[in-house]
Write a structure and sequence with these properties.
Blueprint lengths: L2 H14 L3 H19 L9 H24 L3 H15 L8 H15 L7 H12 L5 H12 L2
Helix pairs in contact: 1-2, 2-3, 2-4, 3-4, 5-6, 5-7, 6-7
Length: 150
């Protein structure tokens, strides 16, 4: 069963059980996936990897919105955004630990021969396919900067 099929099945179940947050969140995610499928010159069906990319983007939006609502003194809206983020997280691969990311970065630095901050693009290019959907890009970017500045 593909991720998209799982989302549709879970949407049906959420509607039947009258779980408003889950059903509305899955609807938003399915809409984002459909928009991605019809974007461009011809419509296509997204692979599971591409669906994970869309899910990661939606999860990031929820994290950023929750932080913005928190800083604006709207804890009710922040809680809703966090709840939506938790629903989306169920469909994402398990997140990598910081130690795992650091090991991948060290391997990428060794394989690319990166020597300093100027080589950050090379390292990110090597690490990005390995961490797709499994880690937040800003965290990885920060860790790469730290590793190259040593």
């Amino acid at each position: 069963m593909s991720i998209k099929e799982k989302l549709r099945a879970d949407l049906t179940e959420a509607i039947r059980s009258r779980n408003e947050i889950t059903s509305s969140t899955i609807r938003m995610v399915l809409t984002a996936i459909t928009n991605e499928e019809v974007a461009g010159k011809e419509a296509r069906v997204l692979s599971d990897g591409e669906v994970i990319t869309v899910l990661s983007r939606e999860a990031k939006k929820r994290r950023e919105a929750a932080a913005a609502f928190e800083s604006a003194g709207r804890p009710d809206r922040a809680a809703l955004e966090k709840a939506e983020g938790e629903v989306i997280a169920k469909y994402l691969p398990a997140q990598l630990s910081v130690d795992d990311i650091k090991k991948m970065i060290a391997d990428a630095i060794a394989s690319t021969g990166a020597a300093g901050p100027a080589d950050m693009g090379k390292v990110m290019g090597a690490v990005k396919p390995l961490i797709a959907g499994k880690a937040d890009g800003s965290v990885v970017s920060t860790l790469v900067k730290e590793a190259l500045n040593k």
